[in-house]
Every structure is written in structure tokens, then in C-alpha cells.
Amino acid sequence: MRQPDIEIYLKDADQQAVTAWLEQAIGPCTPWQRKGQTFKCLSGDIEVTWLPQAVGKWHSLYLESDATPWADDLACAQAAHAALGVEVRCSPGSWDEKLGEEDADRWLRVSDEGVTEIAWRTG
């Protein structure tokens, strides 16, 4: 099932490299516009938000559309890892508050070792 949006976390990723990857994967990017702590652009027709150091060395990349080339966060994370060579984390699926706090700490780690489920306490 296709997710309504995509959010991944990239460790020590370079914003320019991410921009180049988005342009190749989705379409041309408008210049980044800084809004407080975040940066926003359009890649093709998709609104993109970049939050540097959202969680320590981890940068958040949020794609506000269900029309990305990826059906879910994991597919995007795998593509980002392959293109950028950095560790990427994402949630295992859409999270809902009804699932409780324990499930909020369940994450997927995409690295050179493949995909593994981890506990990541971000709060």
C-alpha cells in the first residue's frame, strides 16, 4: 500500500548531494528556501522539507506527496542509501498514536549490512 508521504532520516548526509539525488529521482529542484530551522523546495511537483540535524547527526527528509517514485519510506530509504552511501533510518510503516509509545521507537536501519529493525529513541 502506498504511503501518503515519505519521511526518512539520513546520517551525515550532504544537502547538495541529496538535492542532486532528488533531481535525478524525481525532477528539477527549486532553490532551497530557509524557513526557521527547515529548508523547503519543490522537486518536480513534490514539496520537500529538509531539517538539518533533526536528531543529532540525523537529517530529516520529508516528501509531502503520495506521487513519489517510492511506495513507502523503506523503498525511499533503500534508494537514498544506494545513491548517497549513507546510513538511512525510517519507520517500518505509518505510525499512529493508538499504537502506543513502544511502537514509536521501532525503526528500520538501512546500511551496507542491509535492512535491520532497531529501537531508536528519538525523543
Instruction: Indicate the mean pLDDT.
Output: 91
Helix content: 10-25%
> How many distinct folded domains?
1
**Unreliable spans:** none
Largest sheet properties:
8 strands, antiparallel
Task: Write down the secondary-structure element order.
Answer: EHEEEEHEHEE
Q: How far apart are the termini?
A: 28 Å
Give the class from helix and strand content and strand pairing: alpha+beta
Oligomer: single chain
Structure description:
The chain has three helices and eight strands; from the N terminus they run βαββββαβαββ. β4 (46-55) and β5 form a beta hairpin. The longest helix is centred in the middle third of the chain and has 12 residues, at 73-84. The mean pLDDT is 91. It starts with 5 loop residues before the first strand and ends with a strand. The chain is of the alpha+beta class. It is 22% helix and 37% strand. It has one domain (6-119). Strands 2-3-4-5-1-6-7-8 form an eight-stranded antiparallel sheet. It has helices spanning 15-25, 73-84, 101-104, and strands spanning 6-11, 33-35, 38-43, 46-55, 58-63, 88-90, 106-111, 114-119.
Features:
single chain, alpha+beta
Quick overview of this protein structure:
The chain is of the alpha+beta class. The protein contains three helices and eight strands, in the order βαββββαβαββ. Strands 2-3-4-5-1-6-7-8 form an eight-stranded antiparallel sheet.
Detail the topology: elements first, then pairings:
Blueprint: E1 6-11, H1 15-25, E2 33-35, E3 38-43, E4 46-55, E5 58-63, H2 73-84, E6 88-90, H3 101-104, E7 106-111, E8 114-119
Antiparallel strand pairs: 1-5, 1-6, 2-3, 3-4, 4-5, 6-7, 7-8
